[in-house]
Amino acid sequence: MFPVPDGDTGSNMCSTMLEACKYIDNVKSDDLIEVWKAVKEGALMGARGNSGVILSQILRGMADASPREYITPADFVKMISNARKVAYSAVMRPVEGTMLTVVRVLDERLQGKNFETFEELFDWIVEIARDTVNRTPHMLQKLREAGVVDAGAKGLYYIFEGMRDAVKGNIQVNLEEVEQASVEELQRMAFEEITNRYCTEVAVRRNQVVEKSELEAFLNEIGDSVVLVEQDDLIKLHVHTNHPGQVLEKVIEFGEIVKVKIDNMKLQHEHVISTQPTKEIGVVAVSPGKGISDILKSLGVDVIVPGGQTMNPSFADLKAAVEQTHAKNVFLFPNNANVLLTAKQIAEAFDDRRVIVVPTSFVQECVAAMVEYDPDAEPEDLLKRFEEAISQCVPISVTRAVRDSRYGNRRIRKGEYLLFVRKELVSHGFSLVKVLKEALEKENAHEKEILTVFLGDNYRKPELEKIQKLIGEEFPNLDLEIYEGGQPHYPYLMLLQ
């Protein structure tokens, strides 16, 4: 995540959402008003940091504009508009290039739009939110210098993405893609911004009328990053100051303190940047799908970098991943020929640790190598194990032709299955079974032991059943292992060993 002095933006937003969910769990009816009331109260009580408080106000704005019985797409558009109004009013000095910008742009772009279904609405919201997040570095110099997007904006995008997925019936969570600044950027950026040491948050149950403008003026006089929220009889404030005691003395004049959180941000900063290597061996791997990522993690990979065909990770992505391992020796598996050059540049970017690039062009090679992983082995011995495992495995990739074309002397027709062994097109045709059988025979599969199949997003169950039948009848020597891979473009990635 993009580092900010008052803790971790992602954790603060997560805390806000989790507390809202806990309050929802305590609602005993399906009454929409009661649900929204729980969201408002839970989010405000769970709000941590500047980002958490702002998020709570976005949710509050949506709740206050919600109809009492049911919500239509047109109603949700109005709720977004009110979320913008409430969130901006809570921040003394709104800054563009943050989650505030996301909700503002959504409100502006939604005006005059009509949507028949929530699926259409949320597809549109997610697209606009994603585009806005990607433009945040152009709005904030610090983001531009660090080469990252704003974490709060990205967090709000994830929330809208989750809403969209829930509307479509998909409630699986995937938060692998995050932005992270380097250690050097943390050292340079965070420390220089901390002029007020203590991040002070107070929740007060007021027992008398409070002049909001007077309280705002007081907070701005003794600090910065002020966020002030009034909700029913509860006041929640956030301020960065060198005098947290004065804040407590002030708020106790008009109510009872129900929650206090004071963090020394300079100590937080020192903790965050203490990322020197603390273990001997670490592993970073590029992965094209969630299922394959889970398998690699189970085999010992420390950090996964999402990527693959058509979605190559950047230098910054790989460098941040290496830093996250906190290891003296880091094995880096690019798992794609297009990522190999970038990976080699990473190996030259560090003075405080050794980065060993294992030149894999296919993620199946990484799986084969990681089966031999031993975190207690010497790096040189481990590299030999990896290289031997890779040399003995056969990576197979199956896809379909999207157009008529030629491949060398071969004529390829649209819709044909294309089966590659490493980079070589070994067989093709309209029958997957025939194509696979031909390839396995060429690769002496009768002398092998295991065929592992990673299922892509667009695999077909009837095809998988035919593959299982083929292996059982023609290659009974092979143990067939099948896993959800989740990779795009290739319905089947296979590993023959």
Provide a compact summary of the structure:
By secondary structure, the chain is an alpha/beta fold. 47% of the residues lie in helices and 20% in strands.
The order of strands across the largest sheet is 13-12-9-16-14-15
Largest β-sheet summary? 6 strands, mixed
Strands, count: 16
Overall radius of gyration: 27 Å
Q: What oligomerization state is this entry in?
A: single chain
- Unreliable stretches covering 5 or more consecutive residues: 1-7, 175-192
* Morphology: elongated
Characterise the protein shown here:
This protein is of the alpha/beta class and 497 residues long. The protein folds into four domains: 9-179, Serine Threonine Protein Phosphatase 5, Tetratricopeptide repeat, CATH 1.25.40; 205-271; 276-392, Phosphotransferase system, mannose-type IIA component (Rossmann fold), CATH 3.40.50; 395-496, 2-Layer Sandwich (Hypothetical Protein Tm841, Chain: A,domain 3), CATH 3.30.1180. The protein has helices at 9-25, 32-46, 49-64, 73-90, 99-110, 118-135, 141-146, 151-167, 183-193, 212-222, 244-251, 265-272, 290-298, 315-324, 337-347, 363-370, 379-392, 432-442, 461-474; strands at residues 198-206, 223-231, 234-241, 255-264, 279-287, 303-306, 327-333, 354-357, 394-400, 405-407, 410-412, 417-421, 424-429, 450-455, 479-484, 492-496. The strands form four sheets. It has a six-stranded mixed sheet with strand order 13-12-9-16-14-15, with helices on both faces. The longest helix is centred in the N-terminal third of the chain and has 18 residues, at 73-90. The chain starts with 8 loop residues before the first helix and ends with a strand. Residues 1-7 and 175-192 have low confidence and may be disordered. GO terms for molecular function: glycerone kinase activity. This is DhaL domain-containing protein. Residues 1-165 form the DhaL domain.
